[in-house]
Amino acid sequence: MSERQQQLIPISGSDVQAGFPSPADDFLESGLDLHEYLIRHESATFMVRVSGESMLEAGILPGDILIVDRSEQWENNHIVIAVLDGDLTVKRLVRTAQGWILQAENHKWRPIPVLGCDLEIWGVVVGVVRKL
Fold first, then answer.
1. What is the pTM for the complete model shown?
2. Which terminus of the chain has fewer CB atoms gathered within 10 Å of its CB, N or C?
3. DSSP annotation string for 5-70
4. How far is CA 8 from the centre of its chain?
5. In 3-state terms, what secondary structure has residue 119?
6. Edge-first strand listing for the sheet containing 99-103
7. Of 12, 91, 108, 131, which one is the catalytic site residue?
8. Residue 56 falls in which region: left (phi positive, over 0), alpha (psi -120 to 50) or beta
9. Active site residue: 30, 51, 54, 71, which one?
10. How many CB atoms are closer than 10 A to CB 131?
11. Catalytic site residue 91?
């Protein structure tokens, strides 16, 4: 068995209902390689652990691990890892009539206008890993 095959995790052939339960199928698909599933461009991908609560409403919680792809072209409404005035942050990048802002996904936080700031986009968040 190759190293890659040993990394496959069995995956059910059925979706699980988040409402009322339904009978599950008695079979499994061939398996899921988490590396292949989460990472599109290996040489351009890194992971970073989240601290803080600014992205709660996007489903990103403190302690989550973000999968970030530096080769993905960022666009309006992408969740990005940005360096703003030397500080690393995760926010939604939004274009407004007044220019670009970094928008928290927590109603308690105000948007951050980036006009006149030293801003660098490090990459686009393409996945989240969380232990329960």
1. 0.79
2. C
3. HHT-EEEESSPPPSSS--PPPS-EEEEE-HHHHH-S-GGGEEEEE--SSTTGGGT--TT-EEEEET
4. 22
5. strand
6. 45-49, 65-69, 119-129, 79-84, 87-96, 99-103, 112-113
7. 91
8. alpha
9. 54
10. 6
11. yes
